[in-house]
Amino acid sequence: MQAVEQAEVIAHALRRSLVYRFLSTAMRPPDESLLAIDPAQWQTVAQAARSASQDAAAALEALGRACAETGGDALRAEYYRVFGHRVGGDCPLYEAQYVPGGIFPQAQCLADVAGFYRAFGLQVGDAVRERPDHISLELEFMHVLAYREAYARQHHGPDHVALLADAQRAFLRDHLGRWVPALSRLVGNTAGDPYRALAAALAAWVAADAAAVGASPLGDPDLLPSPDAELPDAAHPVCGADGCPIAPPP
Q1: 125 φ, ψ (degrees, to nearest 5)
Q2: DSSP label of 134
């Protein structure tokens, strides 16, 4: 691969990493995310997304405008109205809630997500009291893999790059891409802005990225979450550094 082509492939992986990191942050409670984001980041992230998805970039720009027009108290109230204070609710943020069949398939989903994290040396930090299937953690995992891919393209051989590319494709196919369409539809039907715009950005980005890496088709957007199950929350695999749920790349 020529130097110019190699530089563009690396830049593309870094852009993907940036968008996933941003979406991961935005899906947390607002005091940790939308209220903490530097306004200068909006255009940077939208520009990074535009290379893969015009729809995602437009939704991210709309999200930035909506956040600028929404006060902190209103943003907090809307977040907890839409997502609640517990695992269940009308718009669950946990993948296992979208797995039909009861507690055993849901527990298997948790174990599989945890296995992906462990395979790349990641674990949930002690300060992050979340299940591994929370949307923010799954997005953060994709951020880590995309960043590591960029690093591997500079410093490792094609086998390492292929391993990271295969992991991203598999995780989008088996996990993130399977339930994000349903979550985004539920949020879009339930929330006002800015979370409606965030749902649109999330759906558009995951769809575009999944298609780009060969992980589509995505899951059924009409999938409904299952009733609450008493799932374990101790299958914790993922982080700690710099305020993010998953440990940083090398």
Answers
A1: -70, 155
A2: B
